[in-house]
Amino acid sequence: QRQASVRRRPPSNGPDGDGRDQNEGRLEREFTGVTVIGRGQFSTVYRVQNRVDQCLYAVKKTTQIMRGLRSTQLREVFALANVSMEAEGCPNIVRYFSSWLEDGRLHIQTELCECSLRDRMQEKRKKEPADARFGEAETAAVVRDVANGLKVLHGCDFVHLDIKPDNILVSRHKREDGCYKIADLGLAAAAMGSGCDDISEGDCRYLAKEVLRGNLAELPKADVFALGLVSYELATNPKPLPCNGDEWQLIREGCLQDLPAQLSEPLAQLVRHMAAALPVDRPPCEEILRHPSVVPQTAQD
């Protein structure tokens, strides 16, 4: 009896069969016009144009060379991918497209934004040096957009833990009318089963005191606290927030000094509540979004 011959596939030497990683050279192969638009301690951000669809994107490349994939290095990808799937269409979280490992560094492709809220604050200082404070409508827009992004993030069982003007970006799309978007979810997954050492690495100027003390029971309220301080910083621009000292302690006792009169009393009261000393006294994002000083006038009508 004739036995059927079996054709066997030759063993593979690597991801593409010849020992080479297909992701090596991907940045230059898939994108053109690769230009640095930002540098940080842990990463560099590039403005790129896709060679196929011709659209502009941002690609963040970590500066640290990775020796094997560790969960702490992938937490931003994990958070972005999960939030993108669960909350597709939310305009207030930077949109995630792809990620890959190339040359030992993690690359994360997201939508390209116009600038950061920190950039807007600096622009205002240059254009209006006599009074660079943000007014009622500007501050309310930031509170509304960031609270909406946080509501979605918290609904997906994530917290951000590093809300600050540097991580709030301005949309470049006309249809979104310059709305604000939460970016940099590098600490987001740290809230899930991690210790206080992971969580307390956010910017100390915006970090809630209970998190520094290791109380992780109400982490979403730590994001609300940070948003309260961002709002306070906008209203007192260009006065910087303290990193430590007596004023730092006073703020964490719920004392916001010199909250300017250009904010209406309802909005000023909301800012004070968001920055309350105790987490239980801070409003959840759903309540913030229903506040009369934050609801757009068209919606009120």
Automatic annotation (TrEMBL):
Q: Where is the Protein kinase domain?
A: 31-294
Q: Where is this region: Disordered?
A: 1-27
* Family affiliation: Belongs to the protein kinase superfamily. Ser/Thr protein kinase family. GCN2 subfamily.
Phylogenetic classification of the source organism = Eukaryota, Sar, Alveolata, Ciliophora, Intramacronucleata
**Residues given in the record as ATP binding sites:** K61
Give GO terms: molecular function aspect only: ATP binding; protein serine/threonine kinase activity; protein tyrosine kinase activity
GO cellular component: a single term: cytoplasm
Classify the source by domain of life.
Eukaryota
Where along the chain is composition biased (Basic residues)? 1-10
Supply the source organism for this entry.
Strombidinopsis acuminata
Per the UniProt entry, what is one GO biological process?
negative regulation of translation
Query: What is the name attached to this protein's record?
Result: Protein kinase domain-containing protein
**Where do Basic and acidic residues bias regions lie?**
17-27
UniProt KW keywords: ATP-binding, Kinase, Nucleotide-binding, Protein synthesis inhibitor, Serine/threonine-protein kinase, Transferase
